[in-house]
Amino acid sequence: MKRILTIVLQIFLIAAFTSAVQAQSAPKEVVIGASIPKNGVLAAFGSYAGWGYKTAVAETNAKGGVMLKKYGKRVPIKLVVYDDESRPELATKNIERLVIKDGAHALLGSATPPLVISGAVVAERERIPMVAALSPIRAFLGANKAGWKWTWNMFFDELEMTQQQFLTLNSVKSNKKVALFTDNGQDGVVMGMLWGKNAPKLGYEVVYHAKFPVGTTEYGDLIRRAKEAKAEIIIAQMITPDAIALWKQMGALNYKPKAAFFEKGGEPVVWSKILGKSAQGTMVAGYWHPDLGYPGAKELRARFEKDTGELYSQHIADAYAAAQVLIDGMERAGSIDPVAVNAAIGKTDKTYVVGPVKFTEGKGKRSAALPTFMLQWQNGDLEVVHPKKWATKKLIYPLP
After folding, report:
1. pLDDT of residue 19
2. Which whole number is the average pLDDT over 153-172?
3. Model confidence over 317-361: pLDDT tens digits?
4. Is the CB of residue 75 less than 8 Å from the CB of residue 65?
5. pLDDT-above-70 percentage for the chain
6. Whole-number mean pLDDT of the chain?
7. Confidence of residue 7 (pLDDT cuts 50, 70, 90)
8. DSSP-derived pairing of the beta strands 151-156 and 130-132
9. Shortest CA distance to 153 belongs to which of 120, 186, 106?
């Protein structure tokens, strides 16, 4: 019995010693870095992403930090966020700074393809895991023909999203003539091409397609051409300031389409704030709404609006979920080893506040597509109007 007790004691002491050594070798903090647009033309998107990242990290730290089995303890997270001012070149510099100077163990993406992709290129080069949102999947995948190895993206798939505008209008009458307004950003190029292909397949005709640089301020000639082509449907892919300028100038030129879709630009609350009553009835494709029944969805909206005093945006959900996916990956890896964390992220198969997230294999690997539907501005809030099974309000048509 004495020998048995001695052996047990020795095992206990060895385990205790090993645990103590592991605890001592554990990092004092896990550094997660992000570059987001706090200023510039994409600042509205950056404010939502920043809140989502900060909130997810704060929740984890409230529990003591991320659980790392290798060290047998929870380690607090330090979130370091820099402002890329909506400039791709600065997004690149920020990610380099986060990796080289701040020693980031993992990264979160910026907003829109130019900024997300600029940061992802650095993450690939430095072999640091990055989880991104706020970048349509086809634009993201198309930016790296060799395939991403360290960057994971969760957002909507343009192949599906560019059908929603036509499917939404199938329940009403129009002349089915469409005018496209797309800028030369990745989103505009990819979606403009897809709308051009999808329109005739779904019974619509693109009678005019205006293409222009990001930052264009004068649209008079383009508007007159769309009006002359008798387009009753407007579909645009633009940043918010440009989209607001286009819609105001359409009103000034007395061009009254029956339906107007402003992708990307028509989503932030600033769209409704600046345009007021003229935003009523305008639409934008969606991938998240607090009433869809995902766990914690309604609560997330309430928390954001309480914290900020502003109307929520769907971007709070994918940003918040992206941070959760990254943290969950670290916990499954049990360490901060980048190879282990990267592999663990790839095994994600869980329903988050934004919905089911599972990264695909094969051609579209490292992307997780969120289902799309149509949102419409009604009385200062975004409502689901298509498909009917998810609708929170009836479609306003034609535009008031």
Report:
1. 47
2. 96
3. 999 999 999 999 999 999 999 999 999 999 999 999 999 999 987
4. yes
5. 94
6. 94
7. low
8. parallel
9. 120
pLDDT at 369 over 90: yes
pLDDT category, 362, cuts 50, 70, 90?
low
Instruction: Quickly tell me which residue has 């939502």 as its tokens.
Output: 48
* CB of 21 closer than 8 Å to CB of 67: no
- DSSP secondary-structure letter at 378? E
> And the tokens for 272?
């409704």
Alpha carbon distance, N-terminus to C-terminus of the chain:
89
Give the start-end residues of each E strand in the chain: 30-36, 66-68, 73-75, 77-83, 106-108, 130-132, 151-156, 177-183, 205-212, 233-238, 259-264, 283-286, 349-352, 355-358, 367-370, 373-378, 381-386
Residue type, 254: N
Structure-token pair, residue 82: 């820099």
Give bridge partners of residue 154 from the DSSP assignment: 368
Cis peptide before 113 (omega within 30 of 0): no
Q: Which amino acid is at 39?
A: N
The pair of three-digit structure tokens given for residue 156, joined into one six-digit string? 């909507």
Q: Which pair of structure tokens corresponds to residue 9?
A: 């004691």
Residue 223 near residue 249 (C-beta atoms within 8 A): yes
Q: What are phi and psi of 76, to 5 degrees?
A: -65, 150
